[in-house]
Amino acid sequence: MVCDQGGERPTAGTGRGSVRPSRGRHRPGTAGAVDAGHRAADHGERGAVTAEIAVVLPALVVLLALLLGTAHVGTVQLRIEEAARAGAREAMRGESMAAVEQTVQRLAGSGARTRVGAAAGWITVEVRTEGETPLVGLLGITLEATASGKDEHGG
């Protein structure tokens, strides 16, 4: 008994030309068995893709966290540089140290430390801050910026 391409198979004992339709049962080696094999392979491939995503996803999350942490560090650095410049401008105009520190705190954030120094007619303002985000905080990064200017009041 051999299946023909029409999906019908000969019936035993009914004569040569008699055929009856198959009822969804396929013998190994027929076209139906090949289709079933493809379906089983599809399920196996889906499982492999899921496993690959499970392995790669944590690495992508860590990479994204590093990129966001780096962008945050850059933003904080720009912020404290602007705070140092603004503090130096105020110190050069003769403002009080309290006013200079208040300006620096406003621009750099409340965690920033300020140091103002004067030497040979020049005023220097240093601003330092620690990393604020959990990832940057774990690395122990300290950011600093310095700005200097000529003392306009000579003392």
Task: Write up this protein.
- The protein is α+β, with helices and mostly antiparallel strands and 155 residues long.
- It has one domain (31-150).
- It has helices spanning 31-92, 97-108, 134-139; strands spanning 8-10, 19-21, 113-119, 122-130, 142-150.
- It has a three-stranded antiparallel sheet with strand order 3-4-5, with helices on one face. It has a two-stranded antiparallel sheet with strand order 1-2.
Core attributes:
two-stranded antiparallel sheet, 52% helix, 155 residues, 3 helices, alpha+beta
How many DSSP helices? Answer: 3
Structural class: alpha+beta
Rg of Cα set: 38 Å
Work out the number of β strands: 5
The portion of residues assigned to helices is: 40-55%
Provide the number of structural domains. Answer: 1
- Widest sheet, order of strands: 3-4-5
- N-to-C SSE series? EEHHEEHE
